[in-house]
Amino acid sequence: MQQFKELIERQYQANLPFVLYHKPQEAEVNLMTQTDQELFYLNDTVNESGFVFAPFDVSQKAIIFPHKQTNSFSFPHQMFLEKQPFSKGFHYKEDARQAEIYQELVNKAIASIQQTELKKIVTSRVLELPVEVPQVSDLFHRLTATYPDAMTYVWYHPKVGLWAGASPETLLKVKHQNLETVALAGTRHESDLSAQPFTSKEYEEQDLVTQHILDNLKPYVKTLHQSERSESKAGQLIHLKTTIKAKLKSQSLQQVIAQLHPTPAVCGLPTQLAKQFLEQNEAYNRQFYSGYFGELNFKSENKRSNRPQNIENQVFKSLKTSSNLFVNLRCMSFQDATCYIYVGGGITSKSNALAEWQETCNKAQTMLNVL
Ligand SMILES: C=C(O[C@H]1C=CC=C(C(=O)O)[C@@H]1O)C(=O)O
């Protein structure tokens, strides 16, 4: 652990880019470090390989830590579970004015949905906390120990900033031509679920996401399959989730990402109208919140024997390419002794502004727990 800590802190103190991440339930924690401060933008989704960090706004370019410019390390995830980290959680009381402002935004979204063809808008807000930047190795330790089922990460580039989070949502997994994605929406705190089970509001909210993904993927896939809807745990929150699997017609990842991002789980429906509403009414820049991030075109060696017993020990090696991208939710950034926590929720005609405010408070707790 000491070696790990020193490696990360040295990189951070030297103002050099790195990403530290743990994919849901994986045995290993990964670290990629860049040896200079150059900022690389993703230009070619098909041929470039590395860790991408993409903003919500699709008109802005994604950043990549390219494999060719980085060193990669891995550590056993077990190492982060042995000593339970020490967070007591950050007690933060939001003032009534913040609640008012957010509920006004939600009511405006509800009115727009009632008066136009908009069906759903995912409104969001940012909390500002006076917090010194924590030791990045400790922050990651707490995140990954607390949320082993999420995609946890700490990402840093001196020209962009420091981001961290615990995402519950896969944007896509692609291996060869096999694609997997999820429609995730609808939220309850686990302690409320038995008294207040999911209602038609959340089922409809989540159906919109599932249907949108299925419709958008159809032209690009040979087969398409959706799972039964289930309840999925993310920290202390429960969401509704449908898993969608498909066989792609070609490996055009660029087209597929364009179909999936931003989904109605983070923007709304119809997408362009919802985006317009957010541009006009959300009084802050989302930056990387509700964008996507993760492994793009990672190559791993695939070994297989041509005989069941492997008698002649003849092993074929082939390189497999896979991508694992996640939606950047339950995340925060740090700047000048301030921590910014980003939270939102899906609004439909059936939404209640006070309940939506409470939902964003519950979501913020995911990050407050590890500060
Ligand atoms: C927009 C967020 O969550 C999305 C993902 C799951 C459930 C959601 C909801 O219930 O509104 C949101 O669509 C967020 O966490 O900031």
From TrEMBL:
Coiled-coil intervals, chain numbering: none
Xref: Pfam families: Chorismate_bind
Ranges for domain Chorismate-utilising enzyme C-terminal: 100-300, 321-363
Tree of life domain: Bacteria
InterPro entries per UniProt: ADC_synthase (IPR005801), Chorismate_C (IPR015890)
Annotated PANTHER family: ISOCHORISMATE SYNTHASE ENTC
This protein's name: Isochorismate synthase
Protein's organism: Psychroflexus salarius
